Amino acid sequence: MCLVTGEAVIDVERASAGRFPADPLTVFEEWEAFRAWAAELEPGGVQAPVGPDGGVSPAPRQVFAIGLNYRDHADEAGLALPASPSVFTKFATALTGPDTQLRLPGDRVDWEAELVVVMGRRAEHVAAGDAWSYVAGLTVGQDYSERGVQSVGPVPQFSLGKSFPGFAPTGPVLVTPDEFADPDDLAIECLVNGESVQKSRTSSMIFSVPELIARLSAVCPLLPGDLIFTGTPSGVGHARTPQRYLRPGDEVVTRIEGIGQLRQTCVAS
């Protein structure tokens, strides 16, 4: 685990003399203590590379994902606005880092740019007004989807269609909410081969980050290191006429204001 402070990239385990180990999940369990330690850290430190292979939280106990959370995405899907969050999961084996090869398991793989929330402490029956204090940070995510698998069966198979290996990249860094002028209003964009295919702001979500945390934590505890993929704006390939899916050689770049970007190069399975 690394800490980015200005120009320095610091190996947390080495800089803390083992107080905080390399395993991010262990650090999330002590997030308040970690932030206090980081605030007192001297400039400089032990240098280390950025870009974890498994993303910013590579072993979460729960990965939540939200469907139809932007008005324009619900419109392009021809569906009514949801009265409550539409929740599914992406299995943890789909998680990967920010700069990867994306192996295409079929010919209907689609892109979905998403803001991802990482929880910093246990949240249970949390009010929306208090929700940001439970967040460790925000990062960039992609909810890649194999639309064929997703639509097989008498009911949609969202979790399976969205959980092939490499279908949940996150990164490149985790940014604490206090680093943003307004963490509820960030520019989000996805480009395929340099063409902007999705472009919006997270303020266009139907259910904001605090509202999602309140709704989810009313049902089950959210644990340190858990991820919430918060939904995607309009512009997905499946909703286009004609429909458009990823092909070997395509490059997908996903970026969010104040955080950075992901990059996947598509290859044949």
TrEMBL record:
UniProt keyword annotations, A-Z: Hydrolase, Metal-binding
Ranges for domain Fumarylacetoacetase-like C-terminal: 63-265
MF annotations from Gene Ontology: hydrolase activity
Pfam families listed in its UniProt record: FAA_hydrolase
Keyword presence, Cytoplasm: no
Organism superkingdom: Bacteria
Family from the record: Belongs to the FAH family.
Entry protein name: Fumarylacetoacetate hydrolase
Native source organism of the sequence: Streptomyces hygroscopicus
